[in-house]
Design brief:
The protein is 40% helix and 22% strand. The protein is an alpha+beta fold and 902 residues long. Helix 8 crosses helix 9. The radius of gyration is 36 Å and the shape is globular. About 3% of the residues have low confidence.
Length: 902
């Protein structure tokens, strides 16, 4: 008859379980919590976290500690509200400590309905938990009154429909309050689950979860696993040797080790009943492992363990290929450097790999045998992003070139294939795709050369046409002048008639030249860009300088032509050089604002600072804030600077002296905007409201709360009559500023609206969205244009004349558009391979600078000052013009009157 087996597979082991193996983590967690330190045990599933919790809590309770254990997964996450979730946590706390009767708790909770749920939980901890749990008279003197709260299965909060960052921020606040309130020294938390500290507070505008001591869980060593030999005694002549062989297969992984020990004990008892004995522990165990665990593992995996690992690896198809590619590399090489990349971290959290001596390796032999190279190759084949195209190409006997990959699809496939071992068909398909793309590239290059030659011919024809038109204009002018003089002599024409005639001649001259000049300027700029792309920087700079000098001579140059000329010259001047930038922030820059005179730039950053700069890049001042800064803006008279940090808005004078702090939002402020007179400030927040404040005394004037989701940005119209708010609910709402009446709701975006701004003339509103578009709207809410981008659009800014719009994108690119929706120019950061997300863009009020804030902590400055660009360009090319014998005589004196005294 089979004896009862002492092993438990899955679930938490009771505190008195005979097979509980004490690890180093047991003493570490116990000692740290006893000393009052916050701790977290974040590891893969079924590593014994819950059993460790039970054991540690029992030891602490035995020494007089008051302990509570809250399993977050019991509360639910899918169908409940924040109110219900926090209420569930609070109810579990008071139940564990027996502080309230259920009815008494419900009354207490409902009496505070004006407070947010997280505030109520905070109040419960301070006014009830710490107040009612007092030192026990029979507890040791140095341990009395201590409270430890264990939070288990914290990864359950990651699937909650609304981020629960506030919950972990509350736990961190309990630690920080120790500095002001000694009572909090009695309270300690231990967090357990599958995740990393960075997962706990995911909002990039808030300080990460950066407190507590990490407790690492490793597999059992042979010495730690000694309690497990009790169930093997009498089953084999050498229980120690058999346990050692078991650990070679499981790597000490708690779940697998308990399971294999149980299988071994049961099999040994079955053999004993039939009279068979265990011979050769190693070979006998290998046969048992293969028959009972590895072979047909998907059917034998009860309780579920291996399928949990598989499902975690494959839960995100786009990410799964990267995880498997990295794991395949580990299988091939045995171990690789254990970095902190998301893929390395995810493999460790799945339990499949572990970090040992700075290397990532497969956790144990069972995992290596189950998730073997054949399994990886087959799974990768099922995941390949080009599976359909490959199948069709192979079906055509590799003849249908239309099935081959090109462009971004080919680039994605190459990145997916990098570091993986694929089939010959994969490599043939990718090679054929590369060859086809190369052939198309060659054809495009031939067409490009033909286009360059065409531009040369058009330039020559344009120059001839301009000369001919100039001659005609002079002849017409002479003819009109001759007739005027003749009329004066013959008809004794009055002076008034002569003046009118002379005016008409001038109008004729100017009107006739405008269209010609624009065509010429655009042609010169396009020609400059074309030859710059041919790696002829000097020739490109000369052509750009010609266009810029010509533009200075003409009247009535449209804004789109002017932008093309300026950006072409900027591109030629800064070709291959690092753009001017503001450097000094250590976190992402979230906001930029120019002073009205364009001489000062304010920046706000995740590093919790506001910085003031001169436009030449000199740092003027740094102001420290308590939390990351999400928005900065100057008032329209330049006398006041507003900055948003955390839940507050701070007002300073232009030289940094603090004036007021506006408090009232219940979550982080996302944007601020002044009214034209500077007497009202609007602020938007993650608490789903926009608030209006008096800039004079900080009084709250109005609250707008019609958005059902986070409001990302706010802007007051130039006439001070309306206010617009952009929201995660994919809409923009426009209110009347005077009384808060909702005037319009702008629909059309298919994802979060991240930014918005009114045009300086007040005729348009531009919006930026995560749906990869920017949109222009009239002041009466009519959609005018949709500007499509290849990546999310993070911000928009109008030029001072309202005719040009700059958009910043998550791809690190600024695009310039005419207000009719025509793309004028694309501006890169130069170091394109390291481009970071652009978080904000802004034209200077004088239109001579364009600034782009970046997630790498810098602000890029694009110089659009015509005279400065002319001087810089001429300084670069002057020596070439004066001394190179190949320079055309018409170009040799191009810079004689620029940049130095004659």
């Amino acid at each position: 008859m089979i004896n009862s087996c002492p092993y438990q597979v899955g679930g938490s082991l009771p505190e008195d379980a005979p097979t509980y193996a004490v690890r180093q983590a047991d003493s570490q967690l116990y000692d740290k919590l006893k000393a009052g330190e916050f701790c977290y045990v974040l590891n893969s599933r079924q590593m014994g976290k819950s059993s460790l919790l039970v054991r540690t809590m029992h030891r602490l309770q035995a020494e007089g500690f008051d302990c509570a254990s809250i399993d977050i997964s019991d509360i639910g996450s899918k169908q409940i509200s924040l109110e219900q979730w926090y209420g569930g946590v609070a109810y579990k706390l008071i139940t564990c400590f027996n502080l309230f009767e259920p009815v008494e708790f419900i009354t207490w909770w409902q009496d505070r309905e004006l407070m947010s749920p997280v505030q109520r939980l905070s109040d419960l901890i301070e006014t009830v938990l710490l107040a009612k749990i007092r030192p026990s008279p029979n507890a040791p003197q140095n341990q009395t009154g201590k409270i430890v709260i264990f939070i288990d299965e914290i990864d359950s909060v990651l699937s909650f429909k609304t981020p629960l960052d506030d919950f972990f921020a509350l736990i961190r606040a309990c630690y920080n309050k120790r500095a002001q309130n000694p009572e909090y020294h009695r309270l300690t938390f231990a967090l357990l689950g599958v995740g990393t500290p960075s997962d706990l507070i995911s909002d990039p505008t808030r300080t990460p979860f950066n407190i507590g001591h990490a407790i690492d869980l490793y597999g059992f060593t042979l010495q730690e696993a000694q309690p497990l030999t009790k169930g093997l005694e009498g089953k084999t002549g050498n229980p120690q040797e058999l346990l050692a062989e078991i650990l070679k297969w499981t790597g000490g992984q708690p779940f697998l080790t308990q399971k294999l020990c149980k299988i071994v004990a049961q099999q040994a008892e079955e053999q004993e009943e039939t009279g068979a004995s265990i011979k050769g522990e190693g070979a006998w165990l290998e046969n048992l492992v293969r028959n009972r665990i590895i072979d047909s593992w998907e059917y034998r995996d009860e309780p579920t363990h291996l399928k949990t690992i598989r499902d975690r690896l494959l839960r995100n198809p786009q990410r799964a290929s990267r995880l498997l590619g990295l794991y395949q590399k580990i299988l091939q090489q045995g171990e690789i450097p254990a970095g902190d990349s998301p893929e390395n971290t995810e493999l460790r959290l799945s339990g499949l790999t572990l970090r040992r001596d700075g290397k990532s390796t497969v956790s144990n032999r069972i995992y290596r045998e189950v998730f073997n190279p054949t399994w990886v190759e087959k799974t990768l084949s099922d995941l390949r992003p080009y599976a359909e195209a490959l199948a069709a190409w192979l079906a055509s006997n590799c003849q249908d070139s239309s099935r081959l990959l090109r462009g971004q699809a080919l680039q994605d496939a190459r990145e997916w294939a990098a570091g993986k071992s694929l089939s010959n068909s994969d490599y043939q398909f990718l090679a054929a795709s590369s060859d086809a793309e190369l052939e198309e590239f060659r054809k495009r290059e031939e067409q490009r050369q033909l286009e360059i030659e065409r531009l040369y011919r058009e330039k020559e024809l344009l120059e001839q046409l301009n000369k001919e038109q100039e001659r005609r204009k002079i002849a017409q002018y002479k003819f009109l002048r001759e007739r005027l003089l003749r009329a004066e002599i013959i008809g004794r024409t009055t002076g008034a008639v002569i003046s009118i005639a002379a005016f008409l001649i001038g109008v004729f001259w100017v009107k006739a030249s405008i269209d010609d000049s624009n065509a010429k300027l655009n042609a010169l700029s396009s020609f400059s860009e074309a030859i710059l792309s041919e790696n002829r920087p000097v020739d490109a700079l000369i052509e750009s300088l010609k266009a810029a000098k010509e533009m200075n001579r003409y009247l009535g140059v449209p804004s789109d032509t002017r932008i093309r000329v300026l950006t072409a010259l900027h591109q030629a001047v800064y070709n291959g050089k690092q753009l001017e930038r503001l450097q000094g922030h250590t976190g992402a820059v979230r906001s930029i604002s120019f002073s009205p005179d364009s001489q000062t730039i304010a920046t706000g950053s995740d590093d919790s600072t506001v910085k003031l700069w001169r436009r030449n890049g000199t740092l003027l001042a740094t102001f420290k804030e308590p939390l990351p800064v999400s928005s900065v803006t100057f008032s329209h008279d330049g006398k006041t600077l507003a900055s948003a940090s955390g839940e507050t808005v701070k007002l300073r004078t232009a030289n940094g002296q603090e004036i007021l702090t506006l408090k009232g939002h219940q979550a982080a402020v996302t944007g601020v905007s002044f009214s034209p007179k500077g007497d009202i400030i609007a602020s938007s927040s993650q608490d789903k409201t926009v608030k209006l404040w008096s800039a004079g005394d900080g009084k709250l004037l109005l609250t707008f709360n019609r958005h059902p989701d986070i409001i990302r940005a706010v802007s007051v119209s130039p006439d001070g009559k309306t206010l617009a708010g952009a929201s995660d609910d994919k809409t923009v709402k426009i209110w009347r500023l005077s009384d808060g009446k909702l005037l319009y709701t702008l629909y059309g975006h298919s994802d979060r609206v991240l930014g918005l701004t009114f045009s300086p003339d007040g005729q348009m509103l531009a919006t930026a969205s995560a749906d990869s578009t920017a949109r222009f709207w009239s002041k009466d809410a009519t959609l005018l244009s949709i500007l499509k981008h290849p990546e999310p659009v993070t911000s928009v800014s109008f030029s001072p004349d309202s005719k040009t719009i700059a958009t910043g994108s998550a791809g690190g690119v600024v695009r310039l558009w005419h207000r009719d929706g025509t793309l004028l120019k694309t501006l890169n950061r130069q170091e394109r391979q390291n481009a970071k997300k652009l978080t904000a863009v802004s034209f200077s009020p004088d239109g001579e600078l364009l600034a782009g804030a970046s997630s790498d902590g810098t602000v890029i400055l694009w110089n659009l000052h015509l005279d400065d660009l002319l001087v810089r360009g001429c300084d670069l090319v002057r020596d070439y013009l004066e001394n190179n014998p190949n320079v055309r005589e018409g170009d040799r004196h191009l810079c004689d009157d620029i940049g130095r005294e004659k």
